[in-house]
Specification:
Blueprint lengths: L8 E6 L12 H18 L3 E6 L1 H4 L4 H6 L2 E5 L9 H5 L17 E6 L5 H11 L3 E5 L8 H14 L2 E3 L1 H9 L7 H9 L5
Parallel strand pairs: 1-2, 1-4, 2-3, 4-5, 5-6
Length: 194
Amino acid sequence: MKLIDSRHAALVLVDYQARLMPMIHNGAQVLAHALRLADIAKEIGIPVFGTEQNPKGLGPNADAVRERCGKTLSKMHFDACADGLLDLLRGSNDVPGEPPSGALTQEVVIAGCEAHVCLMQTALGLLSAGLTVWVVAPACGSRSAENHALGMERLRAAGAGIVSVEMVAFEWLRSCEHAAFRRVLTLLKAPLEA
C-alpha cells in the first residue's frame, strides 16, 4: 500500500443529508470529521465533490457540507458511479491555465453515509473503475455501529485503504515544509465540532 498522492486526488463526500444525520450513530462526530476533512482538502487544493441520494425525497446535504463541495451530484442509485460520479471526477485535477486533459482522477478519498450502503457501493464502484480508494472511517456513518464495522471490513477486503482524517492530511502534505502545513495543523488541533 502506498501513500495518498495529493497531485492526483479528489475528495468525495457521500450523502451527509440533513434529515439522515440525526439517525446516524455518533452522527454529529461523523459530520465534524467530514467537515474537517473538507477544510483540509480546501487548504491543500484538493477538489471536493458531494453526492445526495434522492434529494427530492430525502432532502439536501447538511448546509455545511454543501458549502464545502465544488459540485454536488444528485443520484438515485446507491453507487454514485452509476449516476455520473466518474464523469464528475474526470478532469478534476487539471492545472488551471493548461488545456483540459479529460483524465480521470487516479485516487479518491471518500467518506459518507451510510457506510454499509451508499458509501460502500460508491467506493466499490470506484474500485471497479480502477481507481485507488481511501475510505476515511471516522467520517463515515451508519445507523448502527455494527453496520459501520461490516462496511469497513468489506471495503478493506475489496482493496480500499481504511484511513483516518490525520492520515489523509499528513499524507497529502508529505512535509512540514508544505505551504499549507501550519494552516492544516491548526485545523487538526481545533476542537472537533459540527
